[in-house]
Design goal:
By secondary structure, the protein is an alpha/beta fold. It has six helices and five strands; from the N terminus they run H-E-H-E-H-H-E-H-E-H-E. Helix 5 links the parallel strand 3 and strand 4. This is FBD domain-containing protein.
Length: about 160
């Protein structure tokens, strides 16, 4: 069990390193990577587009959003800053499938990511969302319909 704690600490350090070095040095490119499974929390959103720049041929992305106390503290201005900070090459040219593995309940970071992918990826074919409950589906769909889509072929699937 101690190994997992160390891994968590290593991931936190890795996040800081990615953010720090991306400001002065280009991150290594993972040109052969076409699929990614990643767990994010609200604080990761600031470096997520920077990280995606290093995966130019990404086709399939599976996301798990962790819910932490900071999930509710992300302001609309912070969401806008993160979402328009950059659009990596993979979103523009290769990303076809995005799946949210954990149920979504409409928190600001989750909505920001859904918005980010729909508005910025012309190659997106399928966005799969799991909703926390059926009662939130109507509200979520209303929010979703307000998001401009870059892809005319994107199908949004609710599980």
């Amino acid at each position: 069990m101690d190994g997992w704690t160390s891994l968590s600490g290593a991931l936190s350090v890795t996040e800081e390193l990615i953010h720090h070095y991306s400001e002065s040095v280009q991150l290594p490119q993972f040109g052969y990577m076409s699929s990614l499974y990643i767990t994010l929390n609200a604080s990761d959103l600031k470096w997520f587009p920077i990280f995606l720049r290093s995966i130019p041929n990404l086709k399939s992305l599976i996301l798990v959003m962790e819910r932490t106390g900071s999930s509710h503290q992300l302001s609309p201005k912070a969401i806008k800053r993160v979402s328009i900070s950059s659009v990596p090459e993979c979103l523009l040219s290769s990303l076809e499938f995005v799946e949210f593995k954990a149920p979504i309940c409409g928190l600001a970071p989750e909505m920001m990511l859904v918005w980010y992918f729909l508005e910025n990826s012309p190659t997106l074919k399928k966005l799969t969302l799991r909703l926390k409950s059926h009662s939130t589906k109507d509200d979520f769909v209303k929010k979703l319909l307000k998001i401009p889509r870059c892809s005319t072929e994107c199908e949004v699937i609710f599980l």
